[in-house]
Amino acid sequence: EVQLVESGGGLVQAGGSLRLSCAASGFTFDRYAIAWFRRVPGKEREAVSCIQISDGSTIYEDSVKGRFTISSDNAKSTVYLQMNSLKPEDTATYYCAAALEYCDVGMDYWGKGTLVTVSS
C-alpha cells in the first residue's frame, strides 16, 4: 500500500521556522519525485517545491525561494521541507505528493496534509 504521511505542521509566529516531513512507503522511493503543495480554503492548490530523488534536483515556487529548502533522506524514504522566515501568507495545509521520476508531471500519490498556521 502506498502511503505518504506528512508531519511537522503547527502554529508558529511570523519569522519563525518549521520543518515538515513526508514519510513515503509502498513504492520505489528513488524512482520518484516528491513535491510539496499547499492549499488555502477558497484558493487553488499551489505547488511549493519539488525534489527529484534520482538526481537531487530541486525547484521552488518564487515566493518561497531563499526561505524554504527541500531535501531528502533516501535511507528513510523521507522528504523534508525546511521553512524559515515564515510569513502569515504561508498559512495553509501542506501536502506532499509523488510522481514517477520527474517534478513536471502529474502526481500519482498524495498525502493527507498537515496544517501550518503562521500568526502575525
Entry keywords:
120 residues; four-stranded antiparallel β-sheet; 0% helix
**Cα shape:** globular
Written as H for each helix and E for each strand, in order along the chain, the element string is EEEEEEEEEEE
Question: How far is the N terminus from the C terminus?
Answer: 40 Å
Content of β-strand = over 45%
Helix content: under 10%
Count of runs of 4 or more consecutive helical residues: 0
Q: Uncertain regions: pLDDT < 50 for 5+ in a row?
A: none
C-alpha-based Rg, rounded: 13 Å
Strand count, sense and barrel status of the largest sheet are: 7 strands, mixed
Please report the total strand number as a whole number.
11
Structure in words:
There is one protein chain. The chain has 120 residues and is an all-beta fold. The protein is 0% helix and 53% strand. It is built from no helices and eleven strands. The strands form two sheets. Strands 2, 4, 5, 6, 9, 10 and 11 form a seven-stranded mixed β-sheet that branches. It has a four-stranded antiparallel β-sheet with strand order 1-3-8-7, with no helix packed on it. A hairpin with a 5-residue loop joins strand 5 (46-52) and strand 6.
